[in-house]
Amino acid sequence: MNHEILTERLRLRFPRDTDAQAIYDRYAKDPEVVKYLSWKPHTSVEETLAMRKYWQRKIDKGHSVPYLITAREDERVMGMISVHPKDAFKAGIGYVLGKKEWGRGYMTEALKAVIAEAWQNSTYIRLSAFCDVENIGSYRVMEKAGMRFEGIARAHSVLPNMGPTPRDLKSYAIIKGD
Ligand SMILES: CC(C)(COP(=O)(O)OP(=O)(O)OC[C@H]1O[C@@H](n2cnc3c(N)ncnc32)[C@H](O)[C@@H]1OP(=O)(O)O)[C@@H](O)C(=O)NCCC(=O)NCCS
User: Fold this and answer.
1) CA–centroid distance, residue 106 to ligand 1 (Å)
2) Which of 49, 82, 85, 143 is at a distance of 20 to 30 A from 128, taking alpha carbons?
3) What is the pLDDT of residue 60?
4) Beta strand spans in 102-146 (E)
5) Quick one: which atom of ligand 1 is closest to the CA of 130?
6) 27 CB less than 6 Å from ligand 1?
7) 10: which residues sit within 8 A by CB, 6+ positions away?
8) All domains of the chain, ordered by start, with CATH?
9) Which of 90, 91, 80, 71 is nearest to 33 (CA)?
């Protein structure tokens, strides 16, 4: 997959260490933004930088293809959308957007672009994602991007901001040609 994807309003590009401050400020420190994610809000930019370096090791091994979501109009950092290869034909997707950017269709635009890029420039034929049953905004994004609901994976994962009990997650996927 290409390391940069352009849409009408967005530039999706590989993140760099120098993006850590913006990532921290725009979304990583915000408890409301990370509520349904697998990590707790960051308490310092050093924590964000450490996560960035952790992910860089995954990138280097081919275990993750992350795209920083930036605005074409002023290059501001808005969020992240990542592809997580599982094997040659399937990958998972995860995404997060700073709160100031919510509700303007940005993530739907980003997700559609990443799906199109995968069909064009990878061997994947299946892309999938999970989201918490209460995370309405997230599953609306997936539905609007053409992903289909496949069922509820019960007691699938502990989400650290949602308590110690494993949460039910909605499972979505799109197949090339859908
Ligand atoms: C979920 C998230 C990515 C959505 O991004 P976004 O750019 O605001 O999404 P879009 O504007 O493209 O679409 C969101 C849709 O969900 C709807 N929506 C959002 N919150 C909603 C709510 N609480 N109740 C009902 N609908 C809701 C919006 O109305 C919109 O649908 P519509 O176009 O039919 O009106 C963003 O809120 C986010 O990053 N949240 C925190 C991180 C997260 O949860 N990531 C996903 C983990 S699985």
Assistant:
1) 9
2) 49
3) 93
4) 126-132
5) 48
6) no
7) 69, 70, 71, 72, 78, 106, 109, 110, 113
8) 4-128 (3.40.630.30)
9) 80
